[in-house]
Amino acid sequence: MTAVVGGPAPAGDASGAGRYPSRFRASGVKARHLRAHVLVVAWLGLALAAVAAQEALPVARWLAVHMFLLGAVTTAVLIWSEHFAVALLHAKVPDERWSTARLVTANLAVAGLLVGVWAARPLLTAVAAVALAAAATAHLVVLVRLGRGTLGGRLKPIVSYYRAATAALIAGTVLGALLATGGAGGPDRYAGLRLAHLHVTLLGWIGLPVLGTLFMLWPTVLGVRMKDRTTKVSRRVLRLAGGGLVTAVTALALGRRWPAVAGLALYLAGVALAAHLFARTVRRSRPVSAAAAWTLAAATGWLTVAVATDLVRLATGPLAAAQTAIDALLPVLLVGFVAQVLFGALTYLLPVVLSTGPRDRAAVRARLERGWQARAVALNTGVALAALPLPGPVPTAGLLLAALSGGAFLALVAPVLVRSGKGLPADAGPGGASRRPALWGTAAGVVLTVLAVLAANSGGDPAGGTNAAGTAGAGDGATRTVAVTMADMRIRPARVEVAAGTSLRLEVTNDDAQRHDLEVEDGPATPMLAKGDTRVLDLGPVTRDRQAWCTLPGHRAAGMTMDIVVKDGTATDTAGGHQGHAPAAAPDDHGAPDLSADYSAGWRPRDATLAPAPGGTLHRVELHAAHTTVEVAPGVRQQMWTFGGTAPGPTLRGKVGDVFEVTLVNDDPGMGHGIDFHAGSLAPDRPMRTIGSGERLVYRFRAERAGAWLYHCSTAPMLQHMGNGMYGAVVIDPPGLAKVDREYVLVSSALYLGTPGSTAQVAKMRQNTPDAWVFNGMANQYAQQPLRLRAGERARFWVVAAGPADGVAFHVVGTVFDTVYKEGAYLLEPGGAGGAQVLDLAAAQGGFVETTFPEAGHYPFVDHDMRHAEAGAHGMVEVGG
Question: Which one of 3-17, 82-96, 321-335, 696-710 scores highest in mean pLDDT?
Fold first, then answer.
């Protein structure tokens, strides 16, 4: 958007919709807008500084990209969308003071966001996000009000692109704030919200205004009349692209892949429709600027390629894979699309703006177009090499090639700007005295824009590899290298002791099947490491205690931490015992659930009835690992990690000798899962391995022994996976099991409220302080919806203790158990003189008890550990007459 400023009216537009009203030239508004680009220049300078600091600052590349997009581009779009809206609508210029206030607020908010994320200050980040959303909302209100009571021209619909883009900025700000402040929830929601944030920002806030502006810029560059269909097509394109973007972003935020695919297909259809109109606009006659025309065409082509590739990747893989795919497409969007739009627009506009007459204009244009074919081929070849999945240094070489092309263009632009700056008379036109600083500000903005676009995508490890402070003073003391490994949700050694002033280097290797990284407090960080990857972190002289941790959601809270301790004595490494201090529990968003309250309307309890074992000896089951939000206590909804969409998962039943063939499908886009069946006996290496998102695993075992067995997720950290609902029961009937009137299955477990994987929730798990204890996943559910049978009926209660830490003491008030079966053996059988009052089970144990209810009434059942019973682990058996 910084490039398409001050251009002439589109050729052939008799309405003059593209001409700036005289008040823009006479009042100095145009010069004022150009001077506002000092902010753009400042952001671009900061972006370049961030690029230069990639080795010292772990988040440098993130900062560079966001300074360019959120700082520079946002500022430019805010300035020029208002400017174009006034021109295209023939509207009155808005009050300068309010325009300035909105611009200042937006820039201060962007600065606050960047500092808040960089310094890990959630409150600052949230406040800044609110301020940016407020500034964008005020801008949207202005754009809407400008259209009221104005006739406008043929290009009036283009203003709707700017309005839609501003709405996209508001949505992108909200999503970005959720991601930065931890409000995204668990890894599955994080993946979807991050994809939604990227799409609404790149395709909405940046893509829509550029696409809209091309409707008026393209025919102008070609030197032809605008197609009569342009207005109609521009409206259709906005409906398709805008509606598709809303659909895709909403679906991605909710983790719904196929609706997102449909939305992206609509967006792609809109881009294709616009490209078709642009292609039909081309005439055999020579364009005003062949270089500008071909460059703008290539930019539109890259936008089409990027959206189409994104669509295919999303349609053929899980959301987690789509994240990697769109990250790989950033060079295409930022260099192939945004940078080329910039080059093409400048190639056309600079001769128009800077020349003094037709002959001078032709000379300037000839200079800027010198060697344009070779430059265009180099840039687009470089983008292709950077985007394709090619090995080794090829992508970096591609970006270097694109950078050389950009540098060659700047070498041609610089003399033109210098000549125009020196030759510009002081009274050259309205506001002429102020045009020279505005010209140089714009020239600096051009240079820095190009450099920032290319540098933000130029190689470099996005997470950084060393700390600049690590090399300073390295000779002040001894240098020590420590081999660090990450596996089994642990960092080893968990504690490194060094003498004060020792220069410490960590040689970090991931030995785990899962991806991990390592970030040092106030220091360097590795990128995300796959199994077998190694990176070296140079901390420099260590003078104070520090901590390092894995940044993946939930991993730090699970214990993936390492303490670096400064000691006066001999340095040591501790691999075992101390595993890093547990993080302090953050305040929980949830208080203890109100068990006296009612469940929500439409809620249904889990059916505790256990069906008889099915016929046949082979039982095929498909279990889908996924995240599901359910009501786990009255009025309390919680995201659970589930098998089969429920916590606990489906109960499986069979007989001794039966074979179970269980197909585990991982539908979780954010993390891996596995499964462990206690009822089977086999080597765990392959059947219990962790599978990634979208993968399937067949787990086949023979039930050789009777009992009530537990199954659960086998992926570390199992405390979190089980504590968040990934468990269930397998019932294998003892031979000769007598028939009873009713059979129920009750799986006991602890309930931990809060965001799965968060520090606060994991601290409660590690300290064994649940928010409630439950039967079959929901607190107090059978007190509100009792189990029902009739007097004189005999009932069997199968009970499995899922833990993950506590057992259960199952008791039914008002009855005596005459049969007790625990861990594969009868402890008490009918016909004897004795009875039992409790089935006591440790975590992961199971069994059953039987009793006959003598008369009508209400018989409470409880976990007789009264802490558990009073916190949700109780229910009612309602016996009718």
Answer: 696-710
CB-side exposure of 521: number of CA atoms within 13 Å?
13
In this prediction, residues 256-261 reach a mean pLDDT of: 89
CA distance 205 to 162: 8
* Residue 35 Cα distances to 85, 423, 754, angstroms: 19, 20, 49
In angstroms, the first-to-last Cα distance of the chain is 79
Encoded amino acid at 74, one letter: T
Mean of the per-residue pLDDT values of the chain: 80
498 SS3 class = strand
pLDDT tens-digit map of 140-157:
999 998 887 666 667 788
Q: In the block, which residue shows the tokens 């021209």?
A: 153
Closest by CA to 632, choosing from 526, 750, 488, is 750
DSSP conformational letter for 476: G
Q: Which range is most confident: 335-349, 443-457, 782-796?
A: 782-796
Q: Which residues pair with 794 in a beta bridge?
A: 852
Task: Report the distance separating Cα 525 and Cα 554, nearest Å.
Answer: 18
The region, left, alpha or beta by phi > 0 then psi within -120 to 50, assigned to residue 455 is alpha
Asked whether residue 749 carries a pLDDT value surpassing 90, the answer given is: yes
H, E, C per residue of 580-593? CCCCCCCCCCCCCC
CA 546 to chain centre: 28
Q: Which two tokens stand for residue 206?
A: 């940046």
pLDDT tops 60 at residue 91:
yes
Using DSSP, state whether 597 is helix, strand or coil.
coil
| Three-state SS at 814 | coil
CA distances from 388 to 139, 264, 329, 381 (A): 38, 21, 9, 11
pTM for the whole structure: 0.54
90 Cβ neighbours under 8 A, 6+ residues apart: 17, 21, 150, 151, 152, 153
Q: Which percentage of the chain shows pLDDT scores above 90?
A: 37
Distance of alpha carbon 198 from alpha carbon 31, whole angstroms: 34
Q: What own/partner pairs with CB < 8 Å and gap ≥ 24 does 855-861 have?
A: 855/791, 855/879, 855/881, 856/791, 856/880, 856/881, 857/814, 858/786, 859/812, 859/813, 859/814, 859/815, 860/812, 860/813, 860/814, 861/782, 861/797, 861/810, 861/811, 861/812, 861/813
Q: In the numeric block, which tokens belong to residue 119?
A: 């310094």
Whole-angstrom distance, CA of residue 277 vs CA of residue 618: 61
Q: Tell me the DSSP string of 525-578.
A: B---B-TT-EEEEEEEE--S-EEEE--STTTTTTT-EEEEEEESS---EE-SS-
DSSP state of 646: B
List C-alpha distances in Å: 571 to 480, 520, 564, 566. Answer: 10, 19, 10, 8
From CA 215, how far away is CA 273, in angstroms rounded?
12
- Closest by CA position to 687, among listed 678, 411, 591, 79: 678
What SS3 state is found at 250? helix
For residue 47, which of 69, 79, 27 has the smallest C-alpha distance?
69
Inter-residue contact 873 to 633 (CB < 8 Å):
no
Q: Is residue 700 helix, strand or coil?
A: strand
CA atoms within 13 A on the CB side of 121: 14
The closest of 211, 203, 144 to 171, measured between CA atoms, is 203
Element (H, E) at 492: strand 490-492
Do 845 and 823 contact (CB within 8 A), yes or no? yes
How many whole angstroms separate alpha carbon 52 and alpha carbon 50? 5
Least confident window among 186-190, 315-319, 706-710 = 186-190
Q: Which amino acid is at 14?
A: A
Query: pLDDT of 365-394, one tens digit each?
Result: 888 888 899 988 988 898 888 878 776 678
Phi, psi angles (nearest 5°) of residue 797:
-110, 110
Single-letter amino acid, residue 179: L
The type of residue at 315 is A
